[in-house]
């Protein structure tokens, strides 16, 4: 069992996301300016499972990408001191080279690993991956940008 570095209360202080869209349960490793590893416990109670897919509940790939992006957000909050109520938010700017290698089912535990590739004036590029029991489920290069909450709907980002 890995040691918890940031628990769900800590994460809720950093990210603006809330149930049912908060997809990071805890952080188990953090290396300043370099990387972070987080956990998403995938439970049968997830609100997307009844419709994706009936009889074969499968975590949507876009939500694996979102979970990795939220891990990037936690990293960025640690690096910059931003918090959920800071008036700033972390948005996607690009998703590149996304690959899905394994389906994720209820009961799985996603290990989210992110590494910083570049950080320039509030624009971060990360190499990200999500795995289950050491088996790669998803990987992508994510570029994210810090924006003012009031400006978030003007251009780009999701």
Helices, strands, pairings?
Blueprint: H1 8-14, E1 26-31, E2 35-41, H2 61-80, E3 88-100, E4 109-120, E5 123-132, E6 135-148
Antiparallel strand pairs: 1-2, 2-4, 3-6, 4-5, 5-6
Keywords:
158 residues, alpha+beta, Thiol Ester Dehydrase, Chain A, 6-stranded antiparallel beta sheet, globular, disordered C terminus
Descriptive account of the structure:
With 158 residues, the protein is an alpha+beta fold. It has one domain: Thiol Ester Dehydrase, Chain A. The protein is built from two helices and six strands. A six-stranded antiparallel sheet has the order 1-2-4-5-6-3, with helices on one face. Strand 4 and strand 5 form a beta hairpin. The C terminus is likely disordered.
Summarize the model shown.
It contains two helices and six strands, in the order αββαββββ. It has 158 residues and is an alpha+beta fold.
């Amino acid at each position: 069992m890995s040691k918890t570095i940031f628990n769900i209360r800590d994460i809720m202080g950093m990210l603006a996301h809330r149930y049912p869209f908060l997809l990071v349960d805890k952080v188990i490793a953090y290396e300043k300016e370099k990387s972070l590893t987080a956990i998403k416990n995938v439970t049968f109670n997830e609100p997307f499972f009844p419709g994706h897919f009936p009889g074969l509940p499968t975590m949507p790939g876009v939500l694996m990408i979102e979970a990795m992006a939220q891990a990037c957000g936690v990293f960025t909050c640690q690096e910059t001191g931003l918090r959920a109520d800071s008036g700033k938010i972390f948005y996607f700017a690009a998703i590149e080279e996304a690959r899905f290698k394994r389906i994720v089912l209820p009961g799985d535990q996603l290990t989210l690993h992110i590494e910083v590739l570049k950080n320039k004036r509030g624009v971060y590029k990360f190499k990200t991956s999500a795995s289950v029991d050491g088996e790669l489920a998803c990987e992508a290069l994510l570029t994210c940008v810090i924006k003012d909450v009031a400006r978030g709907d003007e251009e780009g980002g999701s």
